[in-house]
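Slide 14.
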Amino acid sequence: MLRIRRLLCENLECPIGLATANPRLSWRLDADSSQPPVRYQVKVQSGPEAAEIWDSGVTASTDFSVRYAGPVIEPGERAWWTVQVWDGGGNSAISEPSWWEPGIGDWGGSEWIGNSYAGGPRSTAPSPYLRKEFHLGSRPIRARLYVTALGLVEPYLNGKRATQDEFFPGWTDYRTRVQYRGYDVVELLNEGVNCIGAILGDGWYCGHIEWRDRQAYGLQPKLRARLMVDLADGSSTIVDSDGSWTTSFGPILESDMMHGEAYDARRELGEWCSSGSGKGWVPATTFEETVGIVPAPGPAVRVIQEISPIGPPRPIPQWPSNLWIFDLGQNMVGRIRIKVKAKPGLTIRIRCTEVLDAKGNLYREPLRTARATDYYTCKGDGEEIWESRFTFHGFRYVEIMGLDNKTEDPPAVDTVTGVVLHSEMVATGGFECSDPLVNQLQSNIVWGQKGNFLDVPTDCPQRDERLGWTGDAQVFVRTAAFNMDVAGFFAKWTQDLEDSQGERGEIPPVSPNTGVVGGDGGPGWADAFLVCPWTIARVYGDLDLLRKHYESMKAFVGWQEQTHRDFVRSYPGYPGFGGFGDWLSTNADTPMDLIGTAFFGYSADLMAKIADTLGHAEDAARYRQLFADIADSFRRHYVTPEGDLVSRTQTSYVLALQFGLLDEATVPKAVDALVHEIERRGDHLSTGFLGTPYLAHVLSDHGRPDVAFRLLMQKTYPSWLYPVTQGATTIWERWDGWTHDKGFQDAGMNSFNHYAYGAIGHWLYSRVAGIDLAEGDLGYRHLEFRPHVGGGLTHASAWLDSVAGRIEAGWRVEGGRFHYSILVPPPSAGAVYLPSGEVLQVGPGRHELECAL
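Slide 15: predicted structure.
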């Protein structure tokens, strides 16, 4: 039986507003037989019951995507499509219909509008409300709202929200581009008088986005919108944002992404977006802006789930009223909903943190200058429920001040709810094993991704930073692509990287680049521009990202080619940034130039693979030669005549081995030296951000998974499980974020939700459970199952909803025998490497295998 699901257009479900006239249409297939798909046919219509406008024809292929090649679809028109698939056994299935709509290239008479009041570099301004009434002469039959903002926007029609997207239009380099989306709003309109409105927030555009003053891009938030309505009488109406709109301030007194939101419910504007309201409002201000407006290529931020406190709040006596601390049991990212009943004018202060100090109070020093505080002033008309709109926090613990409850009469548990926000990404993988601590580690990895994949891959979600650090993203991207479908997320962020690229080809350490941390990211950070798109291409089998950014990738490698000295990067006097090194390693400083040269080699190797994949043979040959030259230089500069490395840190050995920079004779010596260095430290790692992601893989690839397991199962600092034993529910920034002997680390750099070290997830999935891509494979068509047994585990399993279909791998040990169950999707095949040394070739279907241990 076949079942077709998850029809996507350019990685999005039913998008309104596409940048391309020839979108890539893709689908997922479930099959309960081993027969591979052999043919597909995609049909496109101009409506569910309308005439067909394009037919791919019955195509002999095992692909799960096709590029639309039919006539141009006009803006505002909807193209409906279905796909039919046949397998080798003659079975077939037809999908449910899906659709897409192209974007608008012409914003007509719309203008950027807002309120003239802007605040200052340190002083915030209230959130402006905007509205306009308009008349529809007959019943609306089709309506599309296209909207964007410099800042954040929450659009309304006739008093109802027009979308559930949060923090829209997201963060881009507003000097280059800003994103828009389209929404089907016909159900929100009526014949007669209607009202369109919007609430604006500072967002990343003019609020605080790091530790410096606000207004990094502009002075105040601005709206641009176009509402296009077709009516039953055959006429049409367009409502544009322009000077005819009116504006006012309401209850949102402050909305800052880092400092928080202040809301005075007594200042609410009632039915402000309904006809007949808006008295006393003043004309909106119009603005001239030259920023490009483009369709949003990635997923929107949404409310994903809600979390309740795990028990009653704990009081902290303080005059004039108690502080109440609620424990949500999970370090999360989002906002706080409160439910209270109080007298008019009572102001409730809401603060939050990730951890508590030794006295049980909020430990807020790691927030640095981020106030991370919300204020709600009650209107006093019974039960009031409120949550912020335009801010987010990273927290587990919530402190409420202002309630008049006595210590013996605590507020209800449901006074506080955690509202989880992140970019909407479908869960695509999971891992489980016999050790509860490792399972908690896996949960921490996933929650670290949830908390930091909020429109851009931030390093941390709580302090005055929250930047799109490139180093963190590149080490974690492979793990991320197992946990969730991140194809669209990284398509958007790769464009951010290109927008941030310097004239010489350099890539900055953060993107979108605010300019506060330099123009060259240095080794291991800037390389995200190659690592992330290459990983997305491999995992999802889609080469579009590589094609789109190929020339810019070449320019990045060209920047390194122009600035090396004897193929060494990051040497003293290097004209770029030498790098952050092996960030937060433990008493093991790896030389900057060794790291820089190793990553220069990695860049050349990746570019050779990318060029080969795209069919650029001459480029591929040139980059292979560049890699050979760099590897030769690496050996001359960093390998002694005796075959050892001049730097004996774990990261030195790991990078040299992982990137293939050593000759065959030196490899066994390097492996032995790496193991010796680990054992010398009592089976503890000393690697930082750059060495840690590859450490376990290098050990596995060179016959020492036993050492990798000893590192994984280590419970004392520094190790992956030490934070778990201390109650961590996300990944820490530092191995020693808190220790028994020293307490908290430096508060200036101590995040408790920092996903980089969660890159160990890739090893759990690909080596412990055993699901991996074969070398050179794209889209999980050629699989490798290399399960590792060790660490005292008695079973382990993983599943992956890949673009080729569902993959499963699970093993258990019983009576000295290894039992392995795998599921290979119909279009794929694989090789199984059993612990006994036997290698089996398997085709589609379920396979039950076993061997002696």
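Speaker note: The chain has a mean pLDDT of 96.
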